[in-house]
Design brief:
Layout: H1 3-23, H2 28-45, H3 51-85, H4 87-98, H5 102-120, H6 125-137, H7 141-151, H8 159-166, H9 173-180, H10 185-219, H11 225-229, H12 232-252, H13 258-275, H14 315-333, H15 340-343, E1 349-352, E2 363-366, H16 372-386, H17 399-409, H18 412-430, H19 442-454, H20 458-473, H21 476-493, H22 498-514, H23 520-530, H24 536-561
Antiparallel strand pairs: 1-2
Helix pairs in contact: 1-2, 1-19, 1-24, 2-18, 3-6, 3-16, 3-17, 3-18, 3-23, 4-14, 5-6, 5-7, 5-8, 5-12, 5-13, 6-7, 6-23, 7-10, 7-23, 7-24, 9-10, 10-12, 10-22, 10-24, 12-13, 14-16, 18-23, 19-20, 19-21, 20-21, 20-22, 20-24, 21-22, 22-24
Subcellular location: Cell membrane
GO cellular component, one term: plasma membrane
Membrane topology: Multi-pass membrane protein
């Protein structure tokens, strides 16, 4: 069977999901099971996988999805714990003192705070933490989702302490070492990271300005791009605050720390400069009153009409749970603290291998290394005592039970969606064992077909393959694992030099990062924490524009570097 026909079959499950969610506005809870069924049938009929193996791959996906669901639950639990403890209202009051301007709040929380969380944890954690925080500050839920998903791109390549580079490109380590004539694998990853920063550089300055204009155009009272663009000086200031340590660390140290330290250093510097009024936009921009919002912007979590917020505790105490999350993520993820071997110890894993007797089919959840448990659930429990939630006060009693019961209640819809979505991912990857298609998996068929169409224009399109991988799998790391060798082979086939090989690999890494904007299970997870289940298609239609823009920018840089 030729590659074009295989690609046509491979794209069918994705088209089912896109048409049903973005076209017909079905919820992911209805659309994703049908997309999974389409993928399962094609895996059996076209890729000729045994039915028992498809079932095993589905169960593998369920195990992986359980890990994602724990992250979603942990994020919900933190949000509702802070809501019922009074900390969220305190944070709202504090943010208004820093700046009541929603454009400024978007940059501080959606860009800088989320970049730090991405650098420490990855796993889609930034949207799970930052989006509810914006929601609590009074943002329309749909706007909060779009903003946080789109911003979760620039730091992703170096997310989770460099995992997308260090693990995603492991398969080309030997090839890279031979090409660079070195015995040091760290040099391979550092070289990739250096080129990736150049790929991200234009959007580091363009994306914040674009997203503020996007926000004021689609969610503002006057539907004006100009109101967002008016904060361009502040956006450039934020880009410099994050970008300087980001670039320095990538070029001098390696891929582990650029996003983590770029985010936390940039956040601290930006807040201080904001308090001094430096580059802060004139006037104060805000959303219209919530009763005038489009009903499509709102889900199960109804907006509050409160405009004056009471401080129930000190700002330090209110923010302490987030600070603890950051500290715990850093000390348990950064190797220098020597705790990573403990939290990744297999004794804390649950899962299964060789499911239903199928060799190579299995998945495990590293409970101690999962952000949902450590730190989210752990910090939520600690917060009960830090914020005195067992005491009765003006907020009322039963605060703990309300937080936990509300978080559990919000898990029903995303559970169905994520189980189906991640099961489809497992089937997609699992088709690589098919002898009927000469071991060409569904994702590889799509990538090769795109490459055949591109020819010499490959540098302009290489990032979109990375984006495709992230869209399918929900992970920059897994996208790089899927397509690293393919991208290296494409560079070799096109007769590129050694530096040009690394440019193509870097475009793959940047593409996998920008793919986080549109990947279905990240969107479902964001919808879950914002009460927007059923609005996935609306979000996808909004995030596809910055995704395409990002790919164009990366393609231009790739061509210039070639």
């Amino acid at each position: 069977m030729n590659i074009e026909l295989l690609a046509l079959f491979a794209v069918a499950p994705l088209l089912v999901a896109l048409i049903l969610m973005a076209g017909l506005r079905w919820s992911s809870m209805r659309a994703m099971p049908l997309a999974w069924a389409t993928g399962a049938i094609l895996a059996i009929l076209v890729w000729q996988l045994p039915i028992v193996r498809v079932i095993a791959l589905t169960l593998e996906g369920f195990i992986t999805a359980a890990g994602v669901l724990i992250i979603v639950f942990g994020a919900l639990l933190i949000y509702y714990t802070l809501t019922y403890s009074g900390a969220m209202e305190t944070i709202q009051a504090g943010m208004k003192k820093i700046s009541p301007d929603r454009r400024v709040q978007t940059i501080i929380i959606g860009f800088m705070f989320a970049a730090f969380i991405e650098g420490a944890a990855g796993f889609g954690t930034p949207a799970a933490l930052a989006a509810p925080l914006l929601l609590g500050l009074g943002f329309p839920p749909l706007c909060a989702a779009v903003i946080c998903l789109a911003f979760n791109s620039i730091p992703v390549t170096f997310g989770a302490v460099g995992t997308p580079v260090l693990q995603g490109f492991k398969s080309i380590e030997a090839l890279g070492m031979a090409a660079l004539n070195t015995g040091d694998p760290a040099l391979v990853y550092k070289t990739i990271g250096e080129y990736v920063t150049l790929m991200h550089l234009p959007m580091l300055f363009i994306l914040p300005i674009f997203l503020l204009g996007f926000m004021t155009r689609f969610y503002g009272k006057n539907k004006s791009w100009a109101e967002g663009f008016a904060a361009w000086k502040y956006c450039l200031l934020a880009s410099v605050c994050f970008g300087v340590p980001y670039l320095i660390l990538a070029w001098t140290v390696g891929p582990e720390l650029p996003s983590l330290l770029g985010g936390i250093i940039g956040l601290g510097v930006l807040v201080k400069l904001t308090q001094k009024g430096i580059c802060v936009p004139e006037g104060t921009w805000d959303f219209d009153s919530s009763d005038k919002w489009d009903p499509d912007w709102i889900g199960e979590i109804k907006p509050s009409d409160v405009t004056e917020y009471k401080e129930h505790m000190s700002q330090g105490m209110a923010w302490l749970p987030y600070v603890l999350c950051g500290l715990i993520l850093v000390v348990t993820r950064v190797p220098a603290f020597h705790l990573k071997p403990i939290v990744t110890d297999p004794m804390f894993n649950i899962g299964a291998s060789n499911i239903l007797g199928q060799e190579g089919v299995g998945a495990y959840i590293a409970l101690m290394n999962l952000p949902g448990t450590v730190p989210f659930i752990l910090v939520s429990i600690i917060t009960i005592f830090l914020h005195g939630m067992l005491r009765n006060d003006e907020i009322g009693s039963n605060k703990v039970s309300k937080a936990w019961s509300t978080a559990f209640a919000k898990m029903k819809a995303p559970t169905i969606s994520l189980l189906a979505a991640v099961a489809l991912v497992s089937i997609f990857k699992g088709t690589s064992v098919s002898e009927a298609t000469n071991h060409i998996s569904m994702p590889m068929a799509l990538a090769q077909s795109l490459a055949d169409l591109a020819g010499g224009a490959w540098p302009a399109l290489a990032s979109y393959v990375g984006g495709l991988g992230a869209f399918i799998t929900g992970s920059n790391t897994v996208s790089d694992m899927l397509f690293a060798n393919f991208q290296w082979d494409m560079a070799r086939t096109l007769g590129y030099t050694v530096p040009q090989h690394f440019i193509i690999i870097a475009a793959q890494g940047a593409g996998g990062a920008m793919g986080n904007m549109i990947c279905i299970h990240n969107i479902v997870a964001a919808c879950a924490v914002l009460g927007l289940i059923g609005k996935e298609g609306d979000i996808l239609r909004r995030t596809v524009s910055p995704f395409i823009l990002y790919g164009i920018a990366v393609g231009i840089v790739a061509f210039i570097l070639m």
